Amino acid sequence: MNGRIDSRLAAQIVEQVTNVLPFDINVMDAKGSVVASTDPTRVGTFHSGAQMVLGSSREVEIDDATAARITNVRPGVNLPLVVRGKLIGVVGLTGAPDEVRRFGKLLQGMAQLILEREQLTLELRREERHKEEFIRQAINERSESSREDLAAWAERLGIDLTVTRCAVLCRFTFNQTDQNALLSELEQVQAHLTAQRPDFMVARSSLSELAIFREFEVDAANPYQAAETAHKVLHEVKTLIASVCKRSFLLALGVALPNIDGLRQSWTCAINTLQAGEAQRSNGAGEHCFSYYDHRLAVLFSTLPDNWALAELLLPLRRLLDTERDAPLLQHTLNVWYEHEAHPTRTAKALGIHRNTLDYRLKKINDATGLNLSTFEDSVMMYIALRRMTCN
Description:
Elements: H1 7-18, E1 24-28, E2 34-37, H2 48-56, E3 60-62, H3 64-69, E4 76-83, E5 86-94, H4 97-139, H5 147-157, E6 165-172, H6 179-196, E7 201-206, E8 209-215, H7 223-242, E9 249-253, H8 259-281, E10 289-291, H9 296-302, H10 308-323, H11 327-339, H12 344-351, H13 355-369, H14 376-391
Protein backbone atom coordinates (compact mmCIF):
# COMPACT_ATOMS: atom_id res chain seq x y z
CA MET A 1 0.00 0.00 0.00
CA ASN A 2 2.94 2.32 0.78
CA GLY A 3 0.74 5.01 2.36
CA ARG A 4 -1.49 5.33 -0.69
CA ILE A 5 -4.98 4.24 -1.66
CA ASP A 6 -4.99 2.77 -5.14
CA SER A 7 -8.07 2.12 -7.26
CA ARG A 8 -8.15 -1.58 -6.36
CA LEU A 9 -8.31 -0.92 -2.62
CA ALA A 10 -10.76 1.94 -3.04
CA ALA A 11 -13.08 -0.24 -5.14
CA GLN A 12 -12.89 -2.94 -2.47
CA ILE A 13 -13.97 -0.43 0.19
CA VAL A 14 -16.90 0.76 -1.92
CA GLU A 15 -17.99 -2.78 -2.74
CA GLN A 16 -17.96 -3.97 0.86
CA VAL A 17 -19.54 -0.88 2.36
CA THR A 18 -22.39 -0.62 -0.16
CA ASN A 19 -23.57 -4.02 1.06
CA VAL A 20 -24.18 -2.40 4.45
CA LEU A 21 -25.04 1.28 3.85
CA PRO A 22 -27.73 2.53 1.43
CA PHE A 23 -25.92 5.76 0.49
CA ASP A 24 -23.58 6.92 -2.24
CA ILE A 25 -19.98 6.44 -1.15
CA ASN A 26 -16.78 8.11 -2.35
CA VAL A 27 -13.18 7.21 -1.60
CA MET A 28 -10.55 9.88 -2.16
CA ASP A 29 -6.76 9.62 -2.16
CA ALA A 30 -4.26 11.85 -0.32
CA LYS A 31 -4.53 14.45 -3.11
CA GLY A 32 -8.32 14.75 -2.90
CA SER A 33 -9.09 12.89 -6.14
CA VAL A 34 -11.99 10.42 -6.20
CA VAL A 35 -10.50 6.94 -6.86
CA ALA A 36 -13.70 4.92 -6.35
CA SER A 37 -17.38 5.79 -6.04
CA THR A 38 -20.85 4.34 -6.28
CA ASP A 39 -21.29 7.06 -8.92
CA PRO A 40 -18.81 6.17 -11.71
CA THR A 41 -19.00 9.71 -13.14
CA ARG A 42 -17.21 11.07 -10.08
CA VAL A 43 -14.13 8.85 -10.40
CA GLY A 44 -11.10 10.93 -11.35
CA THR A 45 -12.68 14.24 -10.31
CA PHE A 46 -11.40 16.55 -7.59
CA HIS A 47 -13.37 16.45 -4.31
CA SER A 48 -13.37 19.78 -2.47
CA GLY A 49 -14.75 18.26 0.74
CA ALA A 50 -11.89 15.77 0.81
CA GLN A 51 -9.42 18.63 0.38
CA MET A 52 -10.83 20.30 3.49
CA VAL A 53 -10.47 17.08 5.47
CA LEU A 54 -6.89 16.63 4.27
CA GLY A 55 -6.08 20.18 5.31
CA SER A 56 -7.52 19.87 8.82
CA SER A 57 -7.21 16.09 9.50
CA ARG A 58 -10.75 16.32 10.88
CA GLU A 59 -14.23 15.26 9.87
CA VAL A 60 -15.99 17.76 7.58
CA GLU A 61 -19.77 18.04 7.11
CA ILE A 62 -21.24 19.79 4.11
CA ASP A 63 -24.89 20.89 4.15
CA ASP A 64 -26.99 22.19 1.26
CA ALA A 65 -25.96 25.81 1.83
CA THR A 66 -22.25 24.99 1.85
CA ALA A 67 -22.58 22.74 -1.19
CA ALA A 68 -24.18 25.60 -3.12
CA ARG A 69 -21.10 27.78 -2.55
CA ILE A 70 -18.39 25.19 -3.39
CA THR A 71 -17.67 23.72 -6.82
CA ASN A 72 -17.92 19.97 -7.37
CA VAL A 73 -19.19 19.02 -3.92
CA ARG A 74 -22.45 17.58 -2.64
CA PRO A 75 -24.03 17.48 0.82
CA GLY A 76 -22.66 14.77 3.08
CA VAL A 77 -20.01 13.85 5.62
CA ASN A 78 -16.32 13.30 4.87
CA LEU A 79 -13.97 11.55 7.27
CA PRO A 80 -10.18 11.08 7.35
CA LEU A 81 -8.67 7.66 6.75
CA VAL A 82 -5.72 7.15 9.07
CA VAL A 83 -3.55 4.03 9.01
CA ARG A 84 -0.63 3.61 11.42
CA GLY A 85 -0.96 7.29 12.36
CA LYS A 86 -0.70 8.50 8.77
CA LEU A 87 -3.49 10.31 6.90
CA ILE A 88 -3.71 8.55 3.54
CA GLY A 89 -7.14 9.53 2.22
CA VAL A 90 -10.76 10.41 2.81
CA VAL A 91 -14.05 8.55 2.69
CA GLY A 92 -17.38 10.30 2.21
CA LEU A 93 -21.11 9.58 2.44
CA THR A 94 -23.42 11.61 0.20
CA GLY A 95 -26.65 12.88 1.78
CA ALA A 96 -28.06 15.29 4.29
CA PRO A 97 -25.60 15.37 7.24
CA ASP A 98 -28.39 14.72 9.75
CA GLU A 99 -29.27 11.50 7.88
CA VAL A 100 -25.81 10.12 7.19
CA ARG A 101 -23.88 11.42 10.20
CA ARG A 102 -24.52 8.35 12.38
CA PHE A 103 -23.22 6.08 9.63
CA GLY A 104 -20.02 8.03 9.13
CA LYS A 105 -18.02 6.36 11.91
CA LEU A 106 -19.17 2.94 10.71
CA LEU A 107 -17.98 3.74 7.19
CA GLN A 108 -14.69 5.14 8.48
CA GLY A 109 -14.09 2.11 10.70
CA MET A 110 -14.81 -0.40 7.92
CA ALA A 111 -12.61 1.44 5.45
CA GLN A 112 -9.70 1.73 7.88
CA LEU A 113 -10.03 -1.94 8.77
CA ILE A 114 -9.69 -2.88 5.09
CA LEU A 115 -6.68 -0.58 4.69
CA GLU A 116 -4.97 -1.85 7.84
CA ARG A 117 -5.55 -5.47 6.76
CA GLU A 118 -3.95 -4.68 3.41
CA GLN A 119 -1.00 -3.02 5.14
CA LEU A 120 -0.52 -6.06 7.36
CA THR A 121 -0.74 -8.40 4.38
CA LEU A 122 1.93 -6.43 2.53
CA GLU A 123 4.19 -6.44 5.57
CA LEU A 124 3.79 -10.19 5.98
CA ARG A 125 4.57 -10.74 2.30
CA ARG A 126 7.63 -8.51 2.58
CA GLU A 127 8.79 -10.42 5.65
CA GLU A 128 8.28 -13.74 3.84
CA ARG A 129 10.36 -12.49 0.91
CA HIS A 130 13.15 -11.51 3.31
CA LYS A 131 12.94 -14.92 4.99
CA GLU A 132 13.02 -16.64 1.62
CA GLU A 133 16.16 -14.80 0.58
CA PHE A 134 17.73 -15.53 3.97
CA ILE A 135 17.06 -19.26 3.48
CA ARG A 136 18.53 -19.23 -0.02
CA GLN A 137 21.68 -17.53 1.26
CA ALA A 138 21.91 -19.86 4.27
CA ILE A 139 21.77 -23.07 2.20
CA ASN A 140 23.85 -21.87 -0.75
CA GLU A 141 27.43 -23.11 -0.45
CA ARG A 142 28.57 -20.33 -2.79
CA SER A 143 26.84 -17.59 -0.81
CA GLU A 144 28.92 -14.48 -0.21
CA SER A 145 27.15 -13.85 3.12
CA SER A 146 29.37 -14.63 6.10
CA ARG A 147 28.24 -16.67 9.07
CA GLU A 148 28.11 -13.48 11.16
CA ASP A 149 26.04 -11.66 8.52
CA LEU A 150 23.55 -14.52 8.37
CA ALA A 151 23.26 -14.63 12.16
CA ALA A 152 22.55 -10.89 12.29
CA TRP A 153 20.04 -11.24 9.45
CA ALA A 154 18.25 -14.03 11.32
CA GLU A 155 18.05 -11.89 14.44
CA ARG A 156 16.43 -9.03 12.49
CA LEU A 157 13.87 -11.49 11.09
CA GLY A 158 13.12 -12.92 14.52
CA ILE A 159 14.49 -16.38 13.64
CA ASP A 160 15.83 -18.24 16.68
CA LEU A 161 18.87 -20.13 15.41
CA THR A 162 19.27 -22.09 18.65
CA VAL A 163 16.16 -24.06 17.71
CA THR A 164 16.80 -27.46 16.11
CA ARG A 165 15.32 -27.63 12.60
CA CYS A 166 15.19 -30.16 9.80
CA ALA A 167 15.21 -29.38 6.09
CA VAL A 168 12.57 -30.92 3.85
CA LEU A 169 13.32 -30.87 0.13
CA CYS A 170 10.27 -30.99 -2.13
CA ARG A 171 10.99 -31.75 -5.79
CA PHE A 172 8.15 -31.49 -8.33
CA THR A 173 8.00 -33.33 -11.64
CA PHE A 174 7.83 -31.17 -14.76
CA ASN A 175 8.79 -30.97 -18.41
CA GLN A 176 9.96 -28.07 -20.56
CA THR A 177 6.46 -27.35 -21.86
CA ASP A 178 4.83 -26.65 -18.49
CA GLN A 179 7.42 -24.48 -16.72
CA ASN A 180 5.02 -21.55 -16.40
CA ALA A 181 2.35 -23.78 -14.87
CA LEU A 182 4.91 -25.22 -12.45
CA LEU A 183 5.99 -21.74 -11.33
CA SER A 184 2.38 -20.82 -10.59
CA GLU A 185 1.84 -24.04 -8.66
CA LEU A 186 5.01 -23.55 -6.62
CA GLU A 187 3.84 -20.07 -5.63
CA GLN A 188 0.46 -21.51 -4.63
CA VAL A 189 2.07 -24.28 -2.59
CA GLN A 190 4.45 -21.85 -0.90
CA ALA A 191 1.63 -19.47 0.01
CA HIS A 192 -0.46 -22.35 1.36
CA LEU A 193 2.37 -23.70 3.51
CA THR A 194 3.17 -20.33 5.07
CA ALA A 195 -0.53 -19.59 5.66
CA GLN A 196 -1.26 -22.95 7.27
CA ARG A 197 2.04 -23.20 9.15
CA PRO A 198 3.54 -19.76 9.87
CA ASP A 199 6.34 -21.49 11.80
CA PHE A 200 7.62 -23.05 8.57
CA MET A 201 10.42 -21.30 6.67
CA VAL A 202 9.84 -21.87 2.95
CA ALA A 203 11.88 -20.83 -0.09
CA ARG A 204 12.15 -21.78 -3.73
CA SER A 205 15.59 -23.33 -4.14
CA SER A 206 15.29 -23.98 -7.89
CA LEU A 207 12.75 -24.00 -10.71
CA SER A 208 11.24 -27.27 -9.47
CA GLU A 209 12.17 -27.40 -5.78
CA LEU A 210 11.09 -25.95 -2.46
CA ALA A 211 13.21 -25.81 0.68
CA ILE A 212 11.11 -26.16 3.83
CA PHE A 213 12.54 -25.80 7.33
CA ARG A 214 10.57 -26.95 10.34
CA GLU A 215 11.32 -27.16 14.05
CA PHE A 216 12.23 -30.71 15.06
CA GLU A 217 12.40 -32.06 18.58
CA VAL A 218 15.23 -34.59 18.97
CA ASP A 219 15.81 -36.83 21.95
CA ALA A 220 19.46 -37.90 21.71
CA ALA A 221 18.79 -40.79 24.07
CA ASN A 222 16.01 -42.16 21.86
CA PRO A 223 17.02 -42.42 18.18
CA TYR A 224 13.83 -44.30 17.34
CA GLN A 225 11.80 -41.26 18.36
CA ALA A 226 13.66 -39.15 15.80
CA ALA A 227 12.72 -41.59 13.03
CA GLU A 228 9.08 -41.55 14.16
CA THR A 229 9.02 -37.75 14.33
CA ALA A 230 10.53 -37.57 10.84
CA HIS A 231 7.72 -39.75 9.47
CA LYS A 232 5.13 -37.45 11.04
CA VAL A 233 6.81 -34.36 9.57
CA LEU A 234 6.94 -35.89 6.09
CA HIS A 235 3.29 -36.94 6.31
CA GLU A 236 2.29 -33.44 7.45
CA VAL A 237 4.17 -31.71 4.63
CA LYS A 238 2.93 -34.21 2.04
CA THR A 239 -0.70 -33.68 3.13
CA LEU A 240 -0.42 -29.89 3.03
CA ILE A 241 1.13 -29.89 -0.46
CA ALA A 242 -1.22 -32.51 -1.90
CA SER A 243 -4.23 -30.47 -0.76
CA VAL A 244 -3.40 -27.68 -3.26
CA CYS A 245 -1.21 -29.38 -5.87
CA LYS A 246 -2.07 -32.42 -7.99
CA ARG A 247 1.38 -32.59 -9.61
CA SER A 248 3.53 -35.50 -8.39
CA PHE A 249 6.45 -34.71 -6.10
CA LEU A 250 9.16 -36.28 -3.95
CA LEU A 251 10.03 -35.33 -0.37
CA ALA A 252 13.30 -35.84 1.49
CA LEU A 253 13.99 -34.91 5.10
CA GLY A 254 17.52 -34.13 6.30
CA VAL A 255 19.15 -34.52 9.69
CA ALA A 256 17.83 -32.16 12.38
CA LEU A 257 20.43 -29.63 13.57
CA PRO A 258 20.53 -26.20 15.26
CA ASN A 259 22.38 -22.99 14.31
CA ILE A 260 23.32 -21.37 10.99
CA ASP A 261 25.62 -24.20 9.98
CA GLY A 262 22.84 -26.65 10.79
CA LEU A 263 20.54 -25.13 8.15
CA ARG A 264 23.05 -25.73 5.35
CA GLN A 265 24.08 -29.16 6.66
CA SER A 266 20.49 -30.32 7.00
CA TRP A 267 19.72 -29.11 3.47
CA THR A 268 22.74 -30.94 2.05
CA CYS A 269 21.65 -34.02 3.96
CA ALA A 270 18.14 -33.74 2.46
CA ILE A 271 19.67 -33.65 -1.04
CA ASN A 272 21.74 -36.76 -0.30
CA THR A 273 18.72 -38.46 1.24
CA LEU A 274 16.70 -37.85 -1.91
CA GLN A 275 19.49 -39.35 -4.01
CA ALA A 276 19.63 -42.41 -1.77
CA GLY A 277 15.84 -42.74 -1.84
CA GLU A 278 15.66 -42.46 -5.62
CA ALA A 279 18.38 -45.12 -5.95
CA GLN A 280 16.20 -47.48 -3.95
CA ARG A 281 13.17 -46.59 -6.06
CA SER A 282 15.11 -47.65 -9.14
CA ASN A 283 15.46 -51.05 -7.50
CA GLY A 284 11.70 -51.44 -7.43
CA ALA A 285 10.62 -49.50 -4.34
CA GLY A 286 7.70 -47.14 -4.85
CA GLU A 287 8.19 -44.62 -2.04
CA HIS A 288 7.89 -40.88 -2.56
CA CYS A 289 8.94 -39.67 0.92
CA PHE A 290 12.43 -40.31 2.25
CA SER A 291 13.89 -39.65 5.68
CA TYR A 292 17.55 -39.45 6.60
CA TYR A 293 16.66 -41.45 9.70
CA ASP A 294 15.62 -44.36 7.45
CA HIS A 295 18.62 -44.06 5.10
CA ARG A 296 21.43 -43.11 7.47
CA LEU A 297 24.07 -45.49 6.16
CA ALA A 298 23.41 -44.73 2.49
CA VAL A 299 23.49 -40.98 3.16
CA LEU A 300 26.64 -41.14 5.27
CA PHE A 301 28.37 -43.32 2.67
CA SER A 302 27.50 -40.79 -0.03
CA THR A 303 29.45 -38.12 1.85
CA LEU A 304 32.71 -40.09 1.98
CA PRO A 305 35.49 -37.92 0.47
CA ASP A 306 36.62 -38.82 -3.03
CA ASN A 307 40.23 -39.75 -2.24
CA TRP A 308 42.60 -42.72 -2.27
CA ALA A 309 40.78 -44.35 0.67
CA LEU A 310 37.48 -44.35 -1.21
CA ALA A 311 39.20 -45.68 -4.34
CA GLU A 312 40.65 -48.50 -2.26
CA LEU A 313 37.23 -49.24 -0.78
CA LEU A 314 35.59 -49.42 -4.21
CA LEU A 315 38.40 -51.39 -5.87
CA PRO A 316 36.97 -54.94 -5.33
CA LEU A 317 33.54 -53.95 -6.63
CA ARG A 318 35.03 -52.15 -9.64
CA ARG A 319 37.10 -55.24 -10.39
CA LEU A 320 33.88 -57.29 -10.43
CA LEU A 321 32.07 -54.83 -12.70
CA ASP A 322 35.00 -54.53 -15.09
CA THR A 323 35.91 -58.23 -15.46
CA GLU A 324 32.72 -60.24 -15.14
CA ARG A 325 30.45 -60.63 -18.15
CA ASP A 326 27.51 -61.21 -15.78
CA ALA A 327 28.42 -58.20 -13.64
CA PRO A 328 24.89 -56.63 -13.61
CA LEU A 329 23.37 -59.96 -12.53
CA LEU A 330 25.98 -60.42 -9.82
CA GLN A 331 25.55 -56.86 -8.57
CA HIS A 332 21.79 -57.40 -8.34
CA THR A 333 22.44 -60.64 -6.45
CA LEU A 334 24.58 -58.73 -3.97
CA ASN A 335 21.88 -56.10 -3.44
CA VAL A 336 19.25 -58.73 -2.73
CA TRP A 337 21.74 -60.62 -0.52
CA TYR A 338 22.17 -57.57 1.72
CA GLU A 339 18.47 -56.68 1.64
CA HIS A 340 17.83 -60.10 3.20
CA GLU A 341 20.66 -59.74 5.73
CA ALA A 342 22.89 -62.27 3.96
CA HIS A 343 20.42 -65.08 4.66
CA PRO A 344 20.95 -67.68 1.88
CA THR A 345 17.49 -69.26 1.86
CA ARG A 346 15.57 -65.95 1.89
CA THR A 347 17.91 -64.48 -0.74
CA ALA A 348 17.49 -67.45 -3.09
CA LYS A 349 13.72 -67.28 -2.69
CA ALA A 350 13.65 -63.54 -3.39
CA LEU A 351 15.75 -64.08 -6.53
CA GLY A 352 13.65 -67.04 -7.62
CA ILE A 353 16.68 -69.32 -7.92
CA HIS A 354 17.92 -72.52 -6.33
CA ARG A 355 20.17 -72.30 -3.31
CA ASN A 356 23.00 -73.96 -5.29
CA THR A 357 22.70 -71.26 -7.97
CA LEU A 358 23.08 -68.60 -5.29
CA ASP A 359 26.18 -70.33 -3.91
CA TYR A 360 27.64 -70.44 -7.43
CA ARG A 361 27.05 -66.70 -7.91
CA LEU A 362 28.56 -65.83 -4.53
CA LYS A 363 31.65 -67.90 -5.38
CA LYS A 364 32.02 -65.99 -8.65
CA ILE A 365 31.80 -62.73 -6.70
CA ASN A 366 34.43 -63.93 -4.22
CA ASP A 367 36.76 -65.01 -7.02
CA ALA A 368 36.37 -61.75 -8.99
CA THR A 369 36.72 -59.40 -6.00
CA GLY A 370 39.23 -61.25 -3.90
CA LEU A 371 36.88 -60.87 -0.94
CA ASN A 372 35.35 -63.57 1.23
CA LEU A 373 31.76 -62.53 1.87
CA SER A 374 31.42 -65.11 4.62
CA THR A 375 33.73 -62.99 6.79
CA PHE A 376 32.34 -59.96 8.60
CA GLU A 377 35.02 -57.46 7.52
CA ASP A 378 34.91 -58.33 3.80
CA SER A 379 31.11 -58.39 3.85
CA VAL A 380 30.95 -54.92 5.42
CA MET A 381 33.51 -53.60 2.94
CA MET A 382 31.44 -54.83 -0.01
CA TYR A 383 28.23 -53.44 1.51
CA ILE A 384 29.74 -49.96 1.90
CA ALA A 385 31.09 -50.06 -1.66
CA LEU A 386 27.68 -51.05 -3.04
CA ARG A 387 25.87 -48.31 -1.15
CA ARG A 388 28.38 -45.64 -2.16
CA MET A 389 28.29 -46.65 -5.82
CA THR A 390 24.48 -46.79 -5.78
CA CYS A 391 24.24 -43.24 -4.33
CA ASN A 392 26.46 -41.95 -7.11
